[in-house]
Amino acid sequence: MRTLLKQYFRNLKRNLLTSFITIAGFSISIGVIIVLFFFIIGELSYDKGFKNIDNTYMVVTTKNEPYVEEDAKDIIMAKYPQVEMACRYYNYQTQFVYNHAEFACQLVTTDEGFFDVFSVPFIYGDKKTVYSNIQGIVLTESLAKTVFKDKYPVGQFIRTVRGKEYQVSAVVKDLPKNSSIKANCFIHYKSKISSSVINNVSTNKLFIVIKPGTNLIDLEQGISKTLIGSSKILNNKEFVFGEPIEWKLFPFKNAYFETSMENDQLQHANLKLILIISFISFLILILAIVNYINLSTAAVISRIKEIGIRKATGAFKTNIFIQFLAESLLTCILASSLAFLFAHALIPVFEILLGKPVDFLMLTLLNVIIILAGVLLIGILSGTIPALIATNYSTIQILSKNKLFLKKPFFKNGLTTFQFIISIVMIFSVFTILKQLTLLQNRDIGFDTGCLIDVEYPGNMSKTDVIKEQLTKNPNIINVSFTKGSPMGIGTYSGSNKPIKNIAILSADEKFVETFKIKILHGRNVNYPSKIKECLITENAFKESGWENLDGKRYIDHDVVGIVNTFNNDDLRKFPANIMIQNDTERGFSEVAIRISSLNKQETLRFIKQIWDSNFPDYGFRYTFYDEWVKNMFSKEKNDARIALVFGIFSIILSCLGLFGLAEYSIKNKIKEIGIRKVNGARVTEILAMLNAGFIKWVAIAFVVACPIAWYAMHQWLQNFAYKTELSWWVFAMAGVVAMLVAVLTVSWQSYRAATRNPVESLRYE
What we know:
This protein is an alpha+beta fold. It is about 50% helix and about 15% strand.
């Protein structure tokens, strides 16, 4: 072992540059794999910390809609003893105020059962009495410290930005970070700030914990029949919105990876990202192994005499095979040690790329075993081929310089070609994603977003006229419209009123059309205020209706008085939904749309803030520019582009390292040929062209193979969008040109050194 180590470090010192590139490439690759490994492990650990996770279920409809009526919990608990505990659940974001400071909160409306179902430990307060006062609120430990600092929190009062007051009744431990439930405060479900209503019936989500050994199918069927029979929404009929409906039990342990559930208010895994990361991890592993094989095989050339002499002095094939395999394992272990340091440095970068924290300290025994096994496997896979090459030829072949294996470099060329295939696919992906982002951000969405802001409004109907009058006094404010919902923040709802089945409903005053610069194509604008309920519908909704005109047409108890151009309402990746704009404002306004001049924007914003502070001193001034809203909507696609760019650069670096090894391999084999050509008058440029031509051929082959792979991958990715960019020929050409330039620059450095070498030294080689 001592001799082996001495030989290993002697060879490292002798081939310092190649050794450095080999270990650096290996350590970078393994470091990236380690980070991605911990990311995937972290994703798989979600919700595993809840004590009752294996027996916890969410009651959902067979249409994958997780809602039940508020009394469903009491009905189920009374009738089914198999249900051990249960809790209601409704989750949304809000703001609370304490000492004139605002705090963003993730609020859950629930009941006492929540803390049993999810085994939440109490720090202050009693679980049995937390909601004896309906206006009681439970805070998590971190939120309580943020709001009250060192002050004892229980008994303190906080209020919503709309003025509703709550008294802190308890403080609990924070929910686990790897939980699909994100919440830091909890109020009683009867003390509503916001609620879910279907056909004027309050609804919520429902979690139940069943006793071990319960027949799940029988319980599921029983609960479904009970809910159908007791439902106020269904009126004892198994139909809602024209479709039959039943209920089922969905395992909560699968919720994080279930993305088909509608509005379940849970955090979900990005399955596509996890699949991409898993695939990229596999590719990086392959690239790292290929890279080591290329560089190690090239190193065999410089050690060919050593191998021949060892064989001549009695060494067996197995001795040489074990030596090369052991060197590979040592290189892998050395690189892995550096990889952990590199991985720790990479974590902040990957947390930005992946959009969530990566727990680098999840070193459980199983994880340690997996990492050690992975390192050994990489070392064995990497060292096997160089070891076979080193032992596959006889002593006579080696010492007679009959290096047959050096004349058949197809395998090595194939490995390098594989690396460039990956690089070209990644480069093409970056260009295509950026092209799609440009298309989406520049597409006409049906209304003018320039200099248009959305301001949160406390819903005080008595002040709407006053606010509008004060705002329009400023010459830099062009238009003002009060709305319930906004074009970029309303969901699409199923409706029982045919002929338009699905529609998004927006309440607004008569200035909405003018403020958003939406065109009325037929009919007129709604009257506001008005005792008559009127509405506008978008052009796509009118086409779906099948109506020939608007004469006498009504929809959801509103007279349809006009048709406006189609515009986006929620997700710019999808086709615009049908939209109804009604003048019915019984529930008040939630937002104010203000179009301002492009001049003196900051001064205008200060003016608006002054009006808000004077009229709503406890509410706060919160606003969003619509054009920024549109840009931020594509954060996921921008992140896809960053991921593709980072791994594209990474794959190019590894490809260059592999090409470096192949170039060294090839040039050493042609060193005498280069000397003879120079003696016979060959110019440096001719030798460079000769040496580069072989490598360019393999990059060209990689380009031909990569094009259909890249086209298919990006074609599938573009299926996520209603509006798609074209997969243009110039994008393929650009990816090929970048890969070709990288290859030529990598090879030319070594080719130039060989071409400018003194012919005497070349011919005196060996």
